[in-house]
Design brief:
The chain is of the alpha/beta class. Helices cover 50% and strands 8% of the residues.
Length: 688
């Protein structure tokens, strides 16, 4: 499919000069002669397997009318590891494209002129490095740097709170964000150096007030740092380059009000805290991907309606309309979406923007008393939370507080679904369903080629053999010196990119100066005050503990680089509330580290959480190591986005239970874990 689409695009490009701009010309033709507003930028979030295959996907999406690129990078690239690192095992090309060096970046943008692109790079910990690679490639293409347009997300604070793709401790990470902003101000004036991301805050359970407050606190922390770097006369222009990336859930009226509150709060902060008088620099510029947290594995066709309604939250109100929108695919709860699934999401945007009359009217909600009341209420509550964060010393100092609040709000969300207080159609209500022609007997997800990782590693090793080692060493020394001496990291990083330095080498140079870091988990050290529906479970845990001779202990591990810890956190919190002893050391562990912890802790049950799609390789490796070290008797369970065939293979490989997003009743999971521990105890006693 990719090959044929690439041929079609190539033929189109050969007969039309400037073919990469045709989608904007198409929009101009549609808009000509009417009073409609211009639509937002249509994007899809894409990248997988290898730079070559991702390039083919990019060109296919551009040929379908996508008006910008939004790049997904794989987890090793996101956290500063080369594809051949032990922690990269099973993760290469899995959730995005692997970029280890300038050669990979050149393949990624083959026949795509950077001078004509508006490129969004969803990258945070290694944002300076990926931007350096982009700049180095632009220079090779003879593009004028001051004309480059795009965005680098560069928001590391939310990584400590939600996705976990941080690389360094918070303070030096904040410094690197400011380095990028300062460099862009001087060299790339049309580039957005910071895309404050509240999207993943909502995915981690944030309620609207938390999303408002935590995102704005992040922006404040960064701007406080940046204004020490630039001339006061230039500072308003720097503020004007800050953008946001937000989430919109199914309560789309509340979400729309949240966006209007964002607009008004940002305007107030820019005026009152930072003295920005020019309205042009106070505009709340934001892109959006609508909520993926609410997409269901059960009756996944319902997700089409959910995605469309969520899009309305960020398009209906002209005053708070997104500048760019990318939509998840209907089958994201099942696995990696195929190109056709992404096209469907793109078509939804195009139909809303170009077939309806939405863009012909002024803001539909101005003067609505109910909307005004809700917006005002959200603003008051967000300001109160901002005051609390400021009193703690700002966003960096308040990380543990914010993480704890997200874990607790996510727990409340899950309990509402479990109790039926929140209705989720097809999950806790209206579960009877006809057979779905979209899923029954049909492969619904794209699979990353198992050879992609080996091919990427081979290419990486060849790259290292072909480069000038002395030039590489000099470039790394300059990166190390810039980090140590407090110089802006970007010039040395661009030079390192041009010298052939790799992602892992660049990151290692920074770690040698700043050290490593493990973020707070947000998991309580003692049980919460939750009492509803837990009495029977607590009695079962107590009974099992008496039979075992000690408190029933559950250990949760996060192998590999997957930083999505929400599920693991909720399982460990509920287990503790049920009376179990618990062990959870957070994210990013090798198989050897997890098995060593099992040896030390001697749990009765081990659970592994993997949501990046690398479950087969990582889980079975851990299972083999457990058997080798005499731990094969301990029941091993797994949670993640796991297709049915993989579930079967894991169970065949010795895993005792597999849980996916459809297993939303955590109390039921707890009961099954207690039963597993009791069964294992009985089997062991019988063998003795």
């Amino acid at each position: 499919m990719l090959h044929c689409s690439t041929l079609r695009f190539s033929q189109f490009h050969a007969i039309r000069t400037g073919g990469y701009l045709w989608q904007w010309k198409t929009v101009d033709r549609i808009m000509k002669g009417n009073s409609r507003d211009r639509p937002w930028i249509f994007r899809t979030y894409a990248g997988h397997s290898s730079p070559e295959r991702s390039n083919a996907l990019f060109r296919e999406n551009l040929s379908k009318g996508q008006a910008g690129l939004s790049i997904a990078f794989d987890l090793p690239t996101q956290v500063g590891y080369d594809s051949d690192h032990v922690l990269a095992k099973g993760e290469v090309g899995r959730v995005g494209v692997p970029i280890c060096h300038l050669g990979d970046m050149k393949k990624l943008f083959h026949r795509i002129p950077l001078a004509r692109m508006n490129t969004s790079m969803t990258i945070n910990a290694t944002a300076p490095w990926l931007l350096a690679l982009y700049v180095a490639l632009a220079k090779q293409q003879s593009a004028e740097l001051n004309q480059l347009r795009g965005t680098v997300q560069n928001d590391i604070i939310k990584e400590y709170l939600s996705r976990g793709t941080y690389m360094l401790p918070p303070e030096p990470s904040l410094r690197l964000i400011a380095d990028v902003a300062e460099y862009c101000h001087n060299e790339l004036p049309k580039w957005n150096p910071l895309n404050v991301c509240s999207y993943h805050l909502q995915e981690a359970g944030a309620e609207p007030v938390q999303e408002l407050a935590y995102a704005l606190a992040t922006a404040i922390a960064v701007l406080d740092e940046i204004r020490l770097r630039v001339d006061p006369v230039d500072f308003p222009r720097v503020v004007g380059r800050i953008s946001f990336f937000v989430n919109a859930g199914l309560r789309f009226i509340t979400e729309m009000c949240k966006m209007r509150a964002f607009v008004e709060l940002w305007d107030e902060i820019c005026r009152q805290r930072f003295g920005v008088d020019n309205p042009r620099y106070r505009r709340f510029r934001y892109g959006v991907q609508v909520n993926s947290l609410g997409l269901t594995e059960q009756q996944p066709e319902n997700n089409i309606c959910r995605i469309l309604l969520e899009m309305l939250a960020v398009t209906l109100s002209k005053k708070a309309r997104a500048r760019a929108v990318q939509l998840p695919a209907w089958n994201e709860a099942l696995g990696l979406p195929r190109p056709w699934d992404q096209q469907w999401s793109l078509r939804m945007q195009q139909i809303l923007a170009l077939e309806t009359d939405l863009l012909e009217y002024e803001d539909l909600f101005d003067g609505n008393s109910e909307i005004d009341r809700t917006v005002s209420q959200l603003k008051v509550q967000a300001k109160q939370e901002l005051v609390r964060i400021d009193a703690m010393g700002g966003a960096i100092s308040a990380l543990e507080h914010m993480k704890q609040q997200l874990v607790e709000s996510n727990a409340r969300r899950i309990r509402r679904i479990e109790s039926g207080e929140t209705t989720v159609v097809g999950v806790n209500s209206f579960v009877a369903t006809a057979d779905s022609p979209l899923t029954d007997g049909i492969e619904t997800a794209m699979h990353v080629d198992s050879e992609a990782e080996a091919s990427q590693i081979a290419a990486l090793r060849q790259w290292k053999r072909d480069r000038d080692p002395e030039r590489v060493e000099r470039a790394l020394s300059e990166v190390h010196a810039a980090a140590r001496n407090g110089n802006n990291i970007m010039p040395a990083s661009v030079a390192a990119a041009e010298a052939g330095v790799t992602t892992g080498e660049w990151a290692a140079a920074l770690k040698s100066v700043f050290g490593s870091y493990r973020a707070p988990t947000g998991v309580r050290m003692s049980p919460s005050n939750q009492t509803e529906n837990l009495d029977d479970l607590r009695m079962a845990v107590d009974d099992a503990s008496r039979k075992l001779g000690r408190r029933l202990k559950l250990m949760i591990g996060k192998p590999g680089l997957d930083g999505h810890s929400n599920g693991a956190e909720q399982i460990i919190c509920r287990a503790r509330d049920c009376g179990m002893a618990t062990v959870y050391s957070g994210i990013r562990h090798t198989a050897d580290e997890i098995v060593a912890e099992i040896v030390d802790e001697q749990p009765h049950l081990v659970g592994l959480s993997v949501l990046s799609g690398s479950h087969m390789r990582l889980v079975l490796e851990i299972r083999e190591l457990m058997v080798e070290r005499g731990l094969g008797h301990i029941p091993l369970v797994v949670g993640g986005i796991i297709p049915d065939q993989d579930k079967h293979d894991l169970l065949t490989g010795g895993v005792r239970a597999v849980y996916t997003p459809k297993d939303f009743e955590i109390n039921q999971i707890m009961a099954e874990l207690v039963a597993l521990a009791d069964l294992q105890r009985a089997d062991t006693a019988a063998q003795v």
